[in-house]
Design goal:
Distance between the termini: 55 Å
Number of domains: 1
CATH class: Alpha Beta
Largest sheet: 8 strands, parallel, barrel
Order of helices and strands: HHEHEHEHEHHEHEHEHHHHEHH
Number of helices: 15
Shape: globular
Helix content: 40-55%
Strand content: 5-15%
Strand order of the largest sheet: 1-2-3-4-5-6-7-8
């Protein structure tokens, strides 16, 4: 039997879900927290969007994920299309699928010459065995090619819940050493850097990680990775594939409730907790939110808009690209 409407609405509020398409008032601290959010796309998902300007605020930074096997021509074409639409574009440079310095130079030249790109996300990449000379983002930085080409902004990866590919023993030792190196690189060069993280589903490990960064002397701004709205089964699949850590238990716990399997997951709870922490701790290291649209670009963009993320990049951020 269907419960009375008032009881049903209370149940939905407790479950942190809303009916698809229903408007939800933005929390007092969520709108400023979403200001300047970024989003990640792939060439094949981007090709399904007729007009990004109908979905994303002006100035939204768009990352283009480079999955193994994607031709560089498709990456550059996608970058050009987004840049021509007025968006700052940040393509991925996964070290382990770049054969050598000549290939890296070619990619940089293509992005710059054909799409006017001057920023990049440098990361190791998800493949187990390097295709050539590189296996880490630090090696890409050390080539000096990005500086020579005049790239203004270079982001690198962060892992709030660790990374088993880097630290198989489950510790954070090598990840922490890499962060110290990247912090030093940012201080001895003119590169504008930030840590863009893997997505997580629980605010507490993220807050604890940011505290550890501060204690370690890592002051790079954090762009926190958050999964956009999606079916619970979809998120669990991606979380396992991407090696998401302890916070995947949040999804597994929800999966035990049949009623939650019927409703799409939304990142409201984790973001509101992070936003509240930021509001009471202004020095909290999270600077922006970065969305992984695992349930679709349109669904994520609409959720962000409905929750106050319609302002795009702040003027100061637009000035630096």
């Amino acid at each position: 039997m269907t419960p009375p409407r008032a009881l049903w609405e209370k149940m939905m509020a407790l479950l942190n879900f809303r009916k698809t398409g229903a408007a939800r008032p933005a929390g007092a601290s969520l709108e400023p927290f979403l200001e300047g959010y970024s989003i990640e796309v792939m060439p094949r998902t981007a090709s399904k969007i007729e007009d990004f300007r109908a979905l994303l605020p002006e100035g939204t930074r768009v990352y283009i994920a480079h999955i193994e096997g994607t031709p560089i021509e498709e990456m550059v074409d996608t970058a050009k299309r987004l840049a021509d639409a007025g968006y700052p574009v940040m393509p991925h440079f996964p070290a382990r699928i770049i054969k050598d310095k000549a290939v890296l130079a070619d990619w940089i030249s293509r992005y710059q010459g054909e799409a006017g790109i001057d920023q990049a996300l440098l990361l190791a990449g998800g493949v187990a065995r390097p295709h050539g000379d590189f296996h880490s983002s630090m090696q890409l930085l050390e080539t000096g090619l990005f500086d020579k080409a005049g790239f203004k902004r270079l982001h690198v990866a962060g892992h709030p819940e660790g990374n088993r590919d880097i630290d198989p023993d489950g510790s954070h030792a090598q990840v922490n050493d890499a962060l110290t190196w990247k912090q030093d690189f940012s201080t001895r060069t003119d590169a504008q850097m930030a840590l863009v993280t893997q997505f997580a589903f629980d605010a507490d490990p993220i807050i604890a990680w940011c505290d550890r960064l501060r204690d370690q002397g890592i002051t790079l701004p954090v762009h926190i990775g958050i999964a956009g709205p999606a079916k619970l089964q979809t998120l669990i699949k991606f979380a396992i594939a991407c090696g998401v850590g302890p916070s995947v238990k949040v999804l597994q716990k929800r999966a035990m409730d049949v009623s939650k399997l019927l409703m799409p997951y939304e990142p409201t709870e984790v973001l509101e907790k992070l936003a509240a922490h930021k509001a009471t701790n202004p020095d909290f290291q999270i600077d922006q939110v970065h969305f992984f649209p695992l349930g679709g670009i349109k669904a994520t963009a609409e959720w962000a808009r409905d929750n106050g993320g319609a302002s795009g990049l702040p003027a100061a951020a637009r000035a630096v690209g």
